[in-house]
Design brief:
Elements: E1 2-10, E2 19-21, H1 24-35, H2 41-44, E3 49-58, E4 63-75, H3 76-83
Antiparallel strand pairs: 1-2, 1-3, 3-4
């Protein structure tokens, strides 16, 4: 099966370590959940954080396929705007 590789980008630094997830929808849902946590840095500085798909992982062959350029999937500040 091929999974997506996702990373959160901090506008003040760089990309955070990447995660593997089932698909874009699942990665976005997990990002949105993290942003909505009351004590989350993603929430308190939402303008700084975005979610990106940076590649794919084929678990049958152990192959990592980079995606260039990476694709932005979500923006933390937009997640909080949706909650208003």
């Amino acid at each position: 099966m091929t999974y997506g590789i996702y990373a959160i980008k901090d506008a003040k630094t760089t990309f955070m370590p990447a995660n593997v997830d089932y698909n874009d929808a699942s990665a976005i849902r997990n990002f949105e959940h993290a942003v909505r946590q009351p004590d989350s840095l993603l929430r308190s500085h939402s303008a700084d954080y975005t979610l990106w798909r940076v590649g794919q992982f084929d678990n049958e062959h152990g192959e990592i396929i980079p995606e260039w350029p990476p694709v932005q999937l979500a923006d933390a500040s937009n997640v909080l705007k949706e909650d208003v």
